[in-house]
Amino acid sequence: MQLKRVAITGMGIVSPLGNDVNSFIKGIEAGKSSVCYMEEWAQYIGMNSHVAAPVTLKDEKKIPRQSRRSMGRMSIFAAQASDQALADSGTTLSEVPSRRIGCVIGSTTGSAKSINDAFEIMLPEKDLTRLSSTMFFQCMSHTAAANVAQYLGLTGYIMAPAAACASSLHAIGTGYDLIRLGKQDILLCGGAEELHPTVTGSFDILFATSVKYNNSPQKTPRPFDKERDGLVCGEGSGILVLEEYERALCRNAKIYAEIIGYSTCGSGFHMSQSDKKSMVYCMSEALSNAQIRPDQIDYINAHATGTLQGDKEEACAVKELFGGSVPISSLKGYIGHSMGASGAIELIASLLMMEKGIIYPTLNLDEISPDCEGINHITKPVKKEINTILKNCFAFGGINAALICKKI
Question: Could you give the domains of the chain?
Answer without folding.
Answer: 8-250 (3.40.47.10), 259-406 (3.40.47.10)
